[in-house]
């Protein structure tokens, strides 16, 4: 939906405000976003509260489960990252510029969409 690239010194929860604002500007009808535990913070809640009819739902891992367990909706993100990894330019961190990386993520997304449409 949106790609925001920032330095590694910014935590996910702090960068969430950038992402959520950009997503809402592009998709104002969107009401729900699923996120992992890294986004379980007051910064994310405060940003989501500013947007009417919008909520962020944290997909949490159960404390009593041991080992690997597929979390609901979390697999969607991991699957998409796997699809991006099929592209040689995105398999490793080759890019020095954030704009170049953003362009290649967009190209990979277009390629994924075209493959799905071609079926």
Give the strand content.
5-15%
Sequence of secondary-structure elements: HEHEHHH
Termini gap: 22 Å
Show unreliable segments: none
What strand order characterises the main sheet? Answer: 1-2
C-alpha-based Rg, rounded = 16 Å
> Number of helical runs?
5
For the residues shown, what is the average pLDDT? 83
Major sheet attributes: 2 strands, parallel
Q: Shape, please?
A: globular
Helix content: 40-55%
Indicate the structural class: mainly alpha
Tell me the quaternary state.
Answer: single chain
User: How many strand elements?
Assistant: 2
Characterize the structure shown.
This protein has 119 residues and is mainly α. The chain contains five helices and two strands. Strands 1-2 form a two-stranded parallel sheet. Strand 1 (32-35), helix 2 (42-50) and strand 2 form a beta-alpha-beta unit. The two termini are 22 Å apart.
Keywords:
two-stranded parallel ribbon; 51% helix; 119 residues; mainly alpha; 5 helices
């Amino acid at each position: 939906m949106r790609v925001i690239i920032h330095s590694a010194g910014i935590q996910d929860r702090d960068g969430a405000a950038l992402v959520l604002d950009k997503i809402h500007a592009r998709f104002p009808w969107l009401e729900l976003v699923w996120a992992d535990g890294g986004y379980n913070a007051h910064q994310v809640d405060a940003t989501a509260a500013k947007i009417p009819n919008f909520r962020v739902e944290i997909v949490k891992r159960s404390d009593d489960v041991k080992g690997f367990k597929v979390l609901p909706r979390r697999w969607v993100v991991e699957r998409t990252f796997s699809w991006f990894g099929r592209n040689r330019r995105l398999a490793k961190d080759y890019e020095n510029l954030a704009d170049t990386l953003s362009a290649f993520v967009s190209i990979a997304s277009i390629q994924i969409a075209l493959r799905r449409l071609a079926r």
